[in-house]
Amino acid sequence: MNLQRPNANDVSQTSNRSRSVVPGSGLCTRCIDGCRGNCEVFKSSFRGREVIYPGPFGTLTAGADKDYPIDYSHLNIMGYALGAEGLPGGAEGTPDNTLFPLVDTEVEYGVENKVKMKVPLFTGALGSTEIARRNWEDFAAGAAISGITLVCGENVCGIDPELELDSDGKVAEAPDMRRRVETYKKWHEGYGDMVVQLNVEDTRFGVAEYVVGKLGVETVELKWGQGAKCIGGEIKIDSLEEALELQKRGYLVTPDPSLESSRAAFKDGALKQFERHSRLGFVDEEGFMKEVERVRSLGAKRVTLKTGAYPMRELAMAIKWSSEAKIDLLTIDGAPGGTGMSPWRMMVEWGVPTFYLQCMTNELCAKLAAKGARVPDIAIGGGFSTEDHVFKVLAMGAPYTKAVCMGRALMIPGMVGKNIGLWLQQGDDALPRTISQFGNRVEEIFVCYEELVEKYGRDTVKEMPLGAIGIYTFVDRLKVGLQQLMAGSRRYRVSAMSRDDVMALTEEAAKISGISYVMDAYREEAEQIING
Predict the structure, then answer these.
(1) What is the maximum alpha-carbon separation in the chain?
(2) Backbone phi and psi for residue 7, each to the nearest 5 degrees, phi listed first
(3) Tally of structural domains, the chain
(4) What is the pLDDT of residues 385-425, one digit of tens each?
(5) The domain that contains 165 carries what CATH number?
(6) Torsions phi, psi of 171, nearest 5?
(7) Which of 51, 148, 403, 489 is a plausible cystine mate for 120, CB 3.0–4.6 Å?
(8) Averaged pLDDT for residues 439-448
């Protein structure tokens, strides 16, 4: 395992003075009185609670770096020289009808009002963090033209400076949420969906009533948690007036902006930002069922559930209750995940890692299916970024897992594309060499640009945010890579994938997952051939 250094990390902008570090504590082996820094204990001695969180807020996403005993690298993908599954009409495979571009990566999820996606992917929740707000046009348009689902996260209405509440304290108008929905609808073409999350605060504000009734949102997601943290959503606020307003709206804001000491510290410049926190949610079966029906009664065509890296008890509740409530999609988000703002040590050390959590999910889904009950459509999230991740998750979770949730990996191309546009505006010299080596015009830089022009027309593509083109290009890479892997495994549609299409490289991974150990996979068939 890699050495963990809990008192030095780029995400907290801290580092050890010494090259010799105590593995357990992360402290230098020799701590000197007079040291000029900059381990976490050093920095925390004068910046205190600020150092809990990744920084600077609003310009980064953070992902934990803990090296777990077992992860998806302990699986390898099977390739075959025999047969082909999933060809149209059940056709026999030939060298001409099994070319990898013929692999069908489309999937669908849902109960009655199903959603189709061109690729089995959707975004993580892009909620009230500053990085989601600033880049929304790129993220939303990119997801829409790529044909994947976009998730709008929690607290978007509640923190909107222009939020208008009615006499009952419910949302009457939320311009930022309206902007988000309208941006997605502008580019949406029938594949994918825009999902709006609902947490405790959103429920109190009547967000579901607003987005479904006034904005025409069709899917609402109930949220139990996420893989990065076990507390509610958090953001930072750099305005005393905004901090007081959010406190007035009912949020927990720390340090308390109403205290004179907090005001004085902010005036002095020692306190530079406040934190806004969401309340913890509590679940019970009766309350969950009532909330699902309440949201449906508002006119939502689909209700989904997002749960986090909780132990098997809460996982079983999520799966069983989703089955009984006919939830359209259950997203299970494992540790460590990544986020715009979570307590760093919590992100690293809390929760069930994704690999283990998916293994638990497979076991519980199989037991539910054996009872003859409906197994909800499942999506798995928690630290994925490449096409082999997608393949392994879908194969290991077959036939229940329908899609993979990617958080940071789908945000990066949106930010890259946006910044390419900004650099181009500043002149040729502003482009980094990593980009300018391919050209200094968007037509040269983006390999999919002319493909989009052919589909939409040049004038329309010029209106697209460049971040959207970045996301489209990245999703295209994932699609082609997935097609190649699936063709190598002779699986020509996602529903043809099975748990036999991956092998465990270690006996421990095989024990945890139930996937065949590499030395046992297809052993029986091999012996029959030899002995035949």
Answers:
(1) 86
(2) -115, 20
(3) 3
(4) 999 999 999 999 999 999 999 999 999 999 999 999 999 99
(5) 3.20.20.70
(6) -65, 120
(7) 403
(8) 96
